[in-house]
Design brief:
- It is a single chain.
- The protein has 18 helices and 14 strands.
- The longest helix is centred in the middle third of the chain and has 24 residues.
- It has two domains: 124 residues, P-loop containing nucleotide triphosphate hydrolases (Rossmann fold, 3-Layer(aba) Sandwich), CATH 3.40.50.300; 270 residues, no CATH class.
- The chain is globular, with a radius of gyration of 22 Å.
Length: 408
């Protein structure tokens, strides 16, 4: 396949920090485009060198003979790029030595935030900026698929029924196959499924077995499958323990692995009293809908899916995360519930997801939340409705689901 570069939103951010002294670390899931982004940034720089720790000789030199490594890859350069940095067991300690002794800008990438945090950050406090690269957001996907339609999407706050219909067709592709770059670039549905299966298997074989040392991948597969069927539901740890044939402690440990390797997202309960946020069970979502759908082996069209509501809700959780915000939910003892609560710039934003919504009806949960927390705006997302209502507490915006990132 001919190499195609799709403009990533993170590139502009990283370029702003190239003139700073600190090390730049780009972390993210496997196959999300870290290497391609590194190559794009590298291409525009002079006196730069790029290596990968997938090359065992260079990794061994870095780990065992740092002075020779410096002689070859540091002394005569202004920029050093290291891909697959997570393979170095004492990477942080060695990077600190280079940083403190030589004037060179270092850019690294790693597929596991846990490896960077455990092995590196303790040595690099005050010396490193960490950025997360996710699979494509919907806006990145749309920009690649149809730039003219993307321009309408990015510049407008409201859309005609015709434009909604056009965007929705692409949204359906995105919500079923996800945003991994190689999947997006695949031309046929069959190829997309093959690529997703390969990403899934690579994750288990390389990320889990090689890097994290987890040997029983069958149990992890069972755990992921159980979570994929409980999107948007409160997690019952005892139930997960039985399904995956794991102890309670193993379930917690493996969920942490899935979070730190960018597979699942955790949604915690929203409370005004922050201490209470640790006292209730979370919900879990998948970072990428395509990855979730390969686990369930379901690539049916949206209208034919029994889990239509779940994958729409999963999309919203992913887009909020890609925007750099935490996902939380709100639920009362009487079971009034808001799917997502976003805190940004001192404001609280309640968001409900209703897949097939024909009329602009405000739910009791929105009224309850608005009254309790005195919010001025609420959002109810569906696949097509675009309307705003004025209420006694403020505005309720009924918006297409695919606009979530624009709203926040």
């Amino acid at each position: 396949m001919k190499e195609i570069y799709i403009q990533r939103e993170l590139e502009e951010t990283i370029n702003k920090y190239l003139g700073k002294r600190e090390i730049i670390a780009i972390v993210g899931a496997r196959q999300c485009g870290k290497t391609t982004l590194m190559k794009k940034i590298f291409k525009n720089l002079k006196k730069a060198i790029s290596i990968s720790f997938d090359e065992r000789e260079k990794l061994s030199l870095f780990d065992n003979d740092i002075e020779s490594f410096i002689e070859l890859y540091v002394k005569n350069f202004d920029y050093l790029f290291i891909d697959e940095f997570q393979y170095s067991k004492e990477g942080g300690k060695k990077l600190k030595y280079i940083y403190d002794s030589h004037k060179i800008k270092i850019i690294i990438s790693g597929s596991s935030v846990s490896e960077l945090s455990i092995q590196s950050i303790k040595y690099l406090v005050g010396r490193i900026f960490i950025f997360t690269l996710y699979p494509f957001s919907f806006s990145e996907f749309l920009q690649y698929k149809n730039r003219d339609l993307y321009n309408i999407y990015s510049k407008n706050k409201e859309f005609s029924e015709e434009v909604i219909s056009m965007i929705r067709r692409l949204y359906e592709e995105f919500i079923i196959y996800g945003g991994y770059p190689r999947v997006v670039l695949s031309e046929s549905k069959e190829e997309k499924e093959v690529v997703l299966r390969n990403i899934y298997n690579t994750y288990l074989l390389k990320e889990i077995r090689e890097i994290l040392g987890l040997r029983d991948e069958d149990k992890l597969s069972k755990l992921m499958h159980a979570i994929s069927l409980q999107i948007g539901s409160l997690i019952n740890y005892n139930e997960l323990s039985k399904i995956a044939d794991m102890s309670y402690k193993e379930v917690i440990n493996n969920l942490n692995i899935l979070k730190k390797t960018f597979v699942i997202l955790e949604s915690k309960p929203f409370y005004a009293n922050k201490r209470k946020e640790l006292s209730k069970n979370p919900k879990f979502y998948f970072l990428d809908n395509g990855f979730r759908n390969i686990i369930t082996s379901n690539f049916q069209k949206l209208d034919n899916r029994a889990d239509r509501g779940q994958i729409n809700e999963n999309f919203v959780s992913s887009e909020i995360t890609k925007a750099g915000l935490d996902i939380k939910y709100w639920r009362t003892k009487s079971k009034a519930e808001i799917d997502f609560v976003i805190e940004k710039s001192g404001k609280v934003m309640p968001i409900e997801v209703k897949s097939d919504l024909r009329d602009a009806k405000i739910t009791k949960s929105v009224y309850s939340f608005a009254k309790k927390y005195k919010v001025k705006e609420a959002f109810i997302l569906s696949e097509g409705l675009d309307k705003t209502l004025n209420t006694e507490f403020g505005k309720v915006h009924f918006k297409p689901i695919f606009t979530i990132k624009k709203l926040i």
